[in-house]
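Review box. Two proteins, two foldings.
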Amino acid sequence: MNKNWYYNSFAFRLASPLLLGIVVYLLVLLFFDSVNQLATNFFSREVFFVIILTLIFLEINRLVIIFLRWAYPLSRNIQIRIIIQLLTSIILSTSIISLVMYFYFVQFEGFSTITTELITFNLIYIFVAICYNLYYFSLVFLYKRNDAKINEESTKKATLELEMETFKNQVNPDFLFQSLEIIISELYRNKKRADELVNSLAMVYRNTLENKDADLIPVATEIESLVPVLKLFKAKYHDGLEYLVDNGEKNLKSIIPGTLQILFENAIFQNIISDSLKLKFKVEILGDKILIVHSLNKRLRNNTLLEERVNRLKNAYSYFSKEGITFTEINGFLNISVPLLEFDEE
C-alpha cells in the first residue's frame, strides 16, 4: 500500500510533538489539579520536557508501524496486526517513556520517587497510543475501501471498454443483409439509384472504421453518419418511412459512435413498417440531450442480437453519465433520451 502516510510527513513530525505535547501537559495539570499554574509554567522547562517526551513517543510509534509493515504486513491478518501493533506500541512507549522520565526526574531534577508521575504519564500516553493507532487503522480501512472502489471501477471500465470495442466493431448481419437486399432490388429498377445506395452503404462502413477507436465523437458527426443509413431504408420502405433529423451543427458536445444507427436499427427491425403502418423517426437536440422519437408497431418476434447491442449501449451511457439512456412509451411512440457528453482532452 504505497500511500503518503501522515507519520512520515515532515510537517506532521515537526508540528505534532508541539501540539500534542501541550495537550499532554494540560492533561497532567488537570490530573494534579494544577491548571492555575499554566500561566506561569507555560514556557517552563516542564513544558519543554513534555514536548520532548511526546516527540519520543511519536517516533516510537512511527518506527513500530514501519517495522510491522515489513515484519507483519496488513495483508496477512489485519486483526492480529491490530493487536500486535497496539501491544507493541503500548509496551515500547511506556518502557522508554518511563526510562526517560526516571533519568529526568531522579538524575536531573533530584526526585527520590516518581511513582505517581510515572503512573500519570504512562496512563496518558497509553490513551494517546490507543488513539494514535486507532487513527492509523481507520486510515488503513479507508484506503482499503477506496482501493476496492477504484479496483471495482477499473474492472467495470475494462469490461466496458471490451464491450465497447465489440460493440463498435460488430457488424449487424440483419443490417448488412437488408442493405444488400435493398441494393440488389434497386438494380432491377434504377441502376443510378443503386449506385447511390452502394455509396451510402460504403459511407456507413467507412464511418464505422473511422470511429472504431474513438470513445466519443461530435454530435454533428454522428448525425452525419446516420444520413446514409436513412437513405438506404428510405429506398426500401418509401412512404412507409418518414424521418426528420436535426443536423446538430451548433452543438459542441459528444456522443458514443454508433448510437443513432443502433437506435434506428432497433426501430426498423423491431417494428412492422408499411404504407399503412408508417415508421416515423425523429432526431432532435434539446439542450444537453438528444431525443429520438419513433412510432411503435412492434413485431411479435424480437431481435436478440439487436437487443444485446442496445443493452451494451445503455451500459456505456450509464458509465459515462449519471442519467444514462431512458426509454419511455407515450401514446404509441417511443421516446429515447440520450445524454450528450463532454469530451475532455487530457
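Next protein.
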Amino acid sequence: MDTGLHGKRALVCAASKGLGRACAMALAREGVAVTITARTAEALQRTADEIRAATGATVTAAPGDITTEDGRAAALAACPDPDILVNNAGGPPPGDFRDWERDDWIKALDANMLTPIALIRAVVDGMAARRFGRIVNITSASVKSPIPTLGMSNGARAGLTGFVGGLARQVARHNVTINNLLPGPFLTDRLLSNAAAAAEKAGRTVDALLEERAQQSPAGRVGDPAEFGDACVFLCAASSGFIVGQNLLLDGGAFNATMG
C-alpha cells in the first residue's frame, strides 16, 4: 500500500523509546522526514541514529521536555511546519485520588491534555493552509475503560478526547484529520518497569507477571510496539482523510463491547 507520505514532515513527541519511537520508526520507513523529541538528549540522539540507519530517512533530534513551553518551542523550531504531529507524553503516576493535591492534577493536565492542545494550536492552521495534515494523539485504553488506580490519567486523557472530538470536525474539510490511538499493554520499557515493581511487591518473577498479563488478553499476548507504529502510519496515510475524530483501540480485544 502506498501511503502517500514520502517527503512529508513529522513531529513525534516523546519518541526516544516505547510507542513514540515505534511511531517515528514506522513513519520514517514511509519516507517521512521525522523530528523526534524527548527529555534525555543522549537517549534521543541514539534513537535518531538508529532510525536513520534502519530507514535512510532524515531524522532530527530536538531534546527537551515537551510538557514545558521551552520544550515545545525547541520542537517547533526544529520542525515549524509539520505535515504530521504525533502527540505523546508519559502518563501520571497511579495512586488514590485522596492523596493527590491540586499541583498533581495540574501537572497531569499539563502533560496529557494541555500540551497536546498547545501543539495542535501551533500547527493546525498551517496544515489547513497546505490542505494536508494528520494529527495523532497517543492516549490510553483507559479513555474507553477507566483504570481505577490511574485517576489522573483517566481524567486528563478524557479531557483531551472531548476537545479533539469537537475540533476534528471543524478542520476535516481542509484535509486535516485528528484521531487518537488508545494503547493497551505493549511491550515497552514502561510496561517492564511497572511489572518489575509489581513483581517485587508480590514476591513473584517479572516473567510470571508478564505471562499472566498476556493470558488476560483475548489475543493471548501483549502488543508489539511495531504494530502500534503501523497503526499510526495507517491514520496518517493520504488515503485516510475520511477518518475523523476517531479513537482506535489497540488492546488485543480486552475491551469487551459490541461497538467500540
